Amino acid sequence: MKVLIVGSGGREHAIAWKVAQSKKVDKIYCAPGNAGISEVAECVPIGAMEFDKLVAFAKEKEIDLTVIGMDDPLVGGIVDVFEKEGLRVFGPRKNAAILEGSKAFSKDLMKKYNIPTAAYETFTDPEKALEYLETAKMPIVLKADGLALGKGVLICQTLEEAKEGVKTLMMDKKFGSAGDEIVIEEFMTGREVSVLSFVDGNIVKIMSSAQDHKRAKDGDQGLNTGGMGNFSPSPFYTKEVDGFCKKYIYQPTVDAMKAEGRPFKGVIFFGLMLTPDGPKVLEYNARFGDPEAQVVLPRLENDIVDVFEACIDGTLDQVDLKFDNDRATVCVILASDGYPVEYKKGFSIEGLEKFKGKDDYYVFHSGTKFNENGQIVTNGGRVLGVTATGKDLKEARKKAYEATEWISFENKYMRHDIGKAIDEVGVVM
User: How far apart are CA 265 and CA 254, in angstroms?
Assistant: First the structure.
């Protein structure tokens, strides 16, 4: 079979690497891909939002399955375009991808179907938002309604900060049209956990839990980023939490989407807060997380293509989803210094060859390309996801940080405390 993967980041590299292990697959293409992905797939220079070109390519090459990695094309309706042309594609349709595409939609859905989440209000008028803040309890959370690369969420400690936040999102339009509508939400305390799941329109099967580190600097300081590192499984995601979420969050979300005439097929990423009052939904994403994919997929034991096809065909109940529960994974992102604001690109990357032939070390490329001399150079804020597996989280973390030393490029930057929460828990796994 021939598979096309749409996207260019570390998530897509992890997907391509996993697809390459399938016995069913004999050719992989990736559009547009990156330097790392080119090791397992043929990269083609078509952007993720060039739907007509992607369809034409899929037809020309007789692609059997297209996998959409990124949020923008999903929210933009790429799945509908592919399906209309009779092409098999993995991911939610436009009317289901709204689960991620609009924070206001997802909050209203949770309210309607009694899915646990933070109390909230939505606003399209900045004046009304400012008025509401005068009576609100601090700290408070402001969220841009639309897609903002994972950065459109502001946690405001004071009223002044909150007012400034409304100005940033709604008046200065820092995230463009994503800030036309905002959600103002109560601030929840607790541990954050990410849980990825496969969904076939009717049922949901949970992948392994993970925990992200969003802030740019050590100690969870600095600006929000797309994610500076991750570990899986989360020691805080206990059997009790899992039981609660399956009953009150996961399946109810899938049922709610179906009841609304928006059946969801693909990956739902549940961002959860484990509050003193029980788990609540922070947000939904309609695709694999990045770098969540980099820590979860190395532990998936199934042929991923079988799972993708079961989601499309509505036969997920026939799949016994298996993860290697004897191993843990940690990913540390190597970024360009200055990310997520300003940074330089084009520096050559040394040391990638050291990962060759190693079973429990991986390097997933996020922002890389080949320069005119055929060297691999930096080409983004997040450059590489250095990932390692170990018998437990502490070993995996030690190995991941060890492997970060194998790589060098001029403005290399990383957090040094990925997985610090591991030390705060009595259990190792």
Answer: 9
Domain topology for 328-424: Glycinamide Ribonucleotide Synthetase; Chain A, domain 4 (3.90.600)
The CB-side HSE value for 294 (13 A sphere, CA atoms) comes to: 30
Output the pLDDT for position 175.
83
**β-pairing, 140-144 with 120-123?**
unpaired
Q: Which two tokens stand for residue 395?
A: 């070993």
How far apart are the C-alpha atoms of 368 and 105, rounded to whole Å?
35
pTM beyond 0.90, yes or no? yes
Structure token digits, residue 73? 């094309």
How many CA atoms, within 13 angstroms, populate the side-chain half-sphere of residue 373? 7
Work out the burial of residue 284: count CB atoms within 10 Å of its CB; fewer than 13 is exposed, 13-18 middle, 19 or more buried. buried
Residue in the structure block whose two tokens are 């930096």: 378
A 10 A CB-CB count for 176 gives 12
Any idea where the domains of the chain sit in the sequence?
A: 2-93, 125-180, 191-318, 328-424
Strands 361-365 and 328-336: unpaired
Residue 424 has what pLDDT? 80
Using one digit for the tens of pLDDT, what is the confidence trace for 93-116? 999 999 999 999 999 999 999 999
Spatial separation of the C-alpha atoms in residues 385 and 406, rounded to whole Å: 13
Instruction: Give the residue-averaged pLDDT of 247-256.
Output: 98
